[in-house]
């Protein structure tokens, strides 16, 4: 069992390094009754049949979530591309595209296998999944410093909370949902978590002071990482490299999902769910710190570029001294080991649906808020859902969030023996030739296959 979990964890790390995602499953399927994966969004959804997902492809979801894009950094000028730091690009134009916090997030939920069956008065699910959550958070001040530099006789940049974080784990989820009466259904899940890899790099405080007489740069930062990320140190005790090896179970955690659905009448339904309430406790994390180092530069005084009689060169010696000081500024020293507890990315969803034409068409509103992460994320989604026959339904949606607005569509095929869905919640309108999003990016693609029992 341990070897099996270890291989899954390694796969999660590889996928996290190559795929940017941020969703459990498509929000578009929330109102599609024939879909077997709705329990991921609200554990109160029941089913009139059992099911088993196709291994690995039972729910595969890829999403990009970022409030910056290629167009934030590059500007077309004729046949050339200029960076935002080019003097032909004004500071006002460049800075207008950066947010107070510039983010690129990654979150994958890859279902290995899920089995659903009806017993004990309701619908039960047992699912094994890989979860990998990664985010980079860059404050606006760092780009302003790169663009503007020193523009006055005295200038100061305060750059706080520059952060990069990843946590990867295996999740075993046990769920049960049931109808309390004709109107009310409730559900819950217990999630047993095995932590695979965790790392958090945080520059808590960086100050850059620039004047005509001197420059001062100071910072305080920390690296925390679980087993599997091993620091290599030089003879001075500073980090000189990283060794990625020895992956295994680095911690344990517990999570819960809770949900309820209330049918007001045959046409109107409201629901509420809270998913991923919980934590992971990481054991024996390595800690490295940079304890408020300071770099001071006050210019070159009485230094020539010619060699001295003894063969030394004052300019080269001074430049080397500055280089060593800058290197000390970003050096991290070993601070031992400690345990660390991280919260899951808890999501709250509230929804309402109203059906017409004997429920052949319905309109839904889904509000989602994600908390417990470095950045709060909120979204409102409006969907139109179509059920033309018993084995097919579809949804089109429009969403509004604090990242960007978008549209999407999902198709769900569910004849008696099979359930297959494919779709997207967010469609990107513009890519570069290298298939990099030009503007703020919120995009996903998902598909899943399961067999009804």
Can you count the beta strands? 21
Instruction: Give the class from helix and strand content and strand pairing.
Output: mainly beta
- Rg is 26 Å
Portion in strands = over 45%
Tally of structural domains:
1
Helix content: 10-25%
Principal-axes geometry comes out as globular
Q: How far from one another are the termini?
A: 27 Å
Mean pLDDT: 81
Figure out the total of helices.
5
Secondary-structure element order, N to C: HEEHEEHEEHEEEEEEEHEEEEEEEE
Largest sheet: 17 strands, antiparallel
| Sequence stretches where pLDDT stays below 50 over 5 or more residues | 1-23, 299-308
Structural account:
The protein is mainly beta. The protein has one domain. The protein is 11% helix and 56% strand. The chain is built from five helices and 21 strands. The protein has helices spanning 2-18, 70-73, 91-95, 140-148, 314-329, and strands at 51-53, 60-66, 74-77, 80-83, 101-119, 122-139, 154-179, 184-211, 215-225, 229-233, 239-244, 251-263, 268-297, 333-343, 347-356, 361-370, 377-389, 392-401, 406-413, 418-424, 441-452. A hairpin with a 4-residue loop joins strand 15 and strand 16. The protein starts with a helix and ends with a strand. The model is unreliable at 1-23 and 299-308 (pLDDT under 50).
């Amino acid at each position: 069992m341990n070897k099996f979990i270890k291989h899954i964890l390694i796969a999660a790390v590889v996928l996290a390094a190559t795929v940017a995602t941020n969703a459990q499953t498509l929000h578009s399927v929330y109102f599609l009754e024939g879909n077997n994966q709705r329990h991921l969004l609200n554990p109160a959804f029941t089913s009139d049949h059992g099911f088993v997902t196709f291994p690995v492809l039972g729910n595969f979801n890829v999403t990009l979530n970022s409030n910056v894009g290629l167009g934030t950094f590059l500007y077309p000028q004729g046949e050339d591309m200029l960076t935002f730091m080019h003097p032909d690009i004004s500071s006002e134009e460049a800075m207008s595209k950066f947010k107070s916090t510039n983010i690129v997030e990654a979150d994958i939920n890859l279902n290995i296998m899920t089995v659903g069956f009806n017993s004990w008065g309701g619908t039960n699910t047992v699912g094994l999944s890989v979860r990998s959550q990664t985010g980079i958070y860059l404050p606006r001040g760092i780009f302003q410093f790169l663009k503007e530099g020193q523009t006055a006789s005295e200038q100061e940049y305060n750059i706080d909370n520059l952060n990069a974080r990843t946590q990867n784990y295996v999740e075993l989820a046990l769920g049960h949902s049931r109808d309390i009466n004709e109107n009310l259904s409730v559900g819950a899940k217990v999630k047993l978590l095995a932590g695979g890899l965790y790392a958090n790099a945080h520059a808590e405080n960086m100050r850059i002071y620039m004047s005509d007489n001197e420059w001062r740069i100071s910072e305080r930062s920390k690296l925390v990482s679980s087993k599997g990320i091993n620091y290599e140190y030089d003879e001075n005790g500073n980090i000189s490299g990283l060794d990625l090896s020895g992956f295994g179970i680095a911690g344990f955690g517990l999570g819960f999902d809770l949900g309820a659905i209330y049918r007001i009448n045959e046409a109107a339904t409201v629901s509420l769910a809270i998913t991923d309430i919980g934590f992971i406790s990481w054991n024996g994390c390595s800690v490295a710190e940079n304890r408020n180092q300071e770099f001071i530069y006050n210019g070159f005084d009485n230094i020539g570029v010619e060699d001295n009689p003894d063969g030394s060169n004052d300019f080269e010696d001074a430049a080397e001294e500055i280089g060593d000081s800058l290197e000390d500024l970003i050096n991290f020293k070993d601070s031992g080991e400690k345990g660390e507890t991280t919260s899951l990315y808890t999501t709250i969803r509230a929804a309402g649906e109203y059906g017409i034409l004997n429920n052949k068409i319905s309109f839904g509103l889904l509000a989602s808020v994600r908390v417990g992460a470095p950045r709060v994320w909120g979204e409102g989604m409006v969907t139109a859902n179509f059920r033309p026959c018993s084995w097919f339904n579809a949804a089109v949606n429009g969403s509004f969030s604090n990242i960007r607005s978008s549209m999407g569509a999902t198709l769900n095929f569910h004849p008696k023996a099979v359930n297959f869905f494919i779709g997207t919640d967010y469609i990107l309108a513009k890519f570069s030739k290298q298939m990099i999003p030009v503007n703020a990016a919120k995009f996903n693609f998902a598909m899943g296959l399961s067999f009804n029992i």
